[in-house]
Amino acid sequence: MLMRLKTRVVLLCTILIMSLMTCGCLRDFEESHLRIAETDISPERVTSTEVLLNVTTYVENRGNGVSGDAKLILKAFDSVSGLLVGETTTSAGSIEEDKTMPVLQQISVKREGGYRIDVVLFEDEERLRQQSMQIYDLGGQTPNIHDIGIKIQEMDFLVENVTDSRVVIGVDLYLTNEGDSTSEDLPMLVKAREFDAGLLADKIWITTGSIKKETTIIRSCDIAVPDGYNYVVEALIWKNDTIVERGEGVVQLNPKRTIPKDEEIVSDKIRVEDFMPESEAMDYGVSVGGMEKAPGFTSILAVIAIMVAALTCIRRRED
Question: Closest Cα partner for 174 from 191, 157, 193, 195?
Fold first, then answer.
């Protein structure tokens, strides 16, 4: 009997300890110090068929220490069918105590009907809480008429030829169609501008070509610029009379100088004649590409006349 009583006491103590440990864990979870303070939703881009939404969630840490690893799962559900139409996950990392961190997420939905937007907060892979919002009548959003879907993603530059003081630079432009259909063939102006003085060194018109949706193509052209200067190369896509997309890159042909971004530089010396069109420079006798203007016809005729006179004198003496 005594042994049975001791066994029961041990079992009861074990159960009591396990219950206390379990309650403690539940309490710790319930008292997590991360909260969703508020959520803002705004349209980033509106096309004829889709709306790209910016969802900014403000996560605050009300605790006395740094939080664990936080992350947000953003979901969009069709308000009529209830079907999941989009989902994205974004890590927020650790959040300092008494701090609020804005976390930006983007999700694309059809430009029709309404949706339920859910934001789910996790800490160290533990689901904490969720916030839900409804958005309605996306069909009433006005599409951006200047959104052509084409984005200038990147530029590459290659020196193709060097003639005296002029450099021919090959420009490769990476164009991506992020729209919903094949893009239009639009005109594109590529120009090189000297960084210090802002003088235009060269420009050329090309076209984007028709680009299939969700694909990237490379369009190439050549520009010729004076050597020894630094340039900003701009690409401008036009639709009718409006610039609808732009991109830029930097070419540095002056090894003694660099181009700090957003900083004005006073140039030491600019040879303005280097940036004159070749035809006009030749008319003024200015050096273009290291070639001086050739002597005029009057000088050549004078030389010939002197030579003829000398030969005539020699013949007369022989006679």
Answer: 157
Query: Six-digit token pair at 287?
Result: 């050096």
Closest CA to 11 of 233, 19, 251, 46: 19
Q: Residue 175 pLDDT > 90, yes or no?
A: yes
Q: Which of 21-35, 46-60, 133-147, 259-273 has the highest mean pLDDT?
A: 46-60
CATH superfamily of 34-140: Immunoglobulins (2.60.40.10)
Residue 15 confidence class, pLDDT cut points 50, 70, 90: low
Record the tokens describing residue 209, joined without a space. Answer: 């070509």
Domain boundaries along the sequence of the chain = 34-140, 150-259
Q: Which residue has the tokens 């004829």?
A: 48
User: Which of 173-177, 242-246, 283-287, 307-311: highest mean pLDDT?
Assistant: 173-177
From the options 3.40.50.410, 3.40.30.10, 1.10.287.3610, 2.60.40.10, give the CATH code of 150-259.
2.60.40.10
Rounded Cα distance between 207 and 183, Å, is 12
Distances (CA, A) of 145 to 141, 142, 207: 12, 9, 20
The confidence band for 292, taking pLDDT boundaries of 50, 70 and 90, is very low
Q: Which candidate, 166, 174, 176, places its Cα nearest to that of 212?
A: 176
Which of 214-244 are b and which e, b meaning 16 or more Cβ less than 10 Å from the residue's Cβ?
Answer: eeebebeeebbbbbebbbebbbbbbeeeeeb
34-140 against 150-259: fold identical? yes
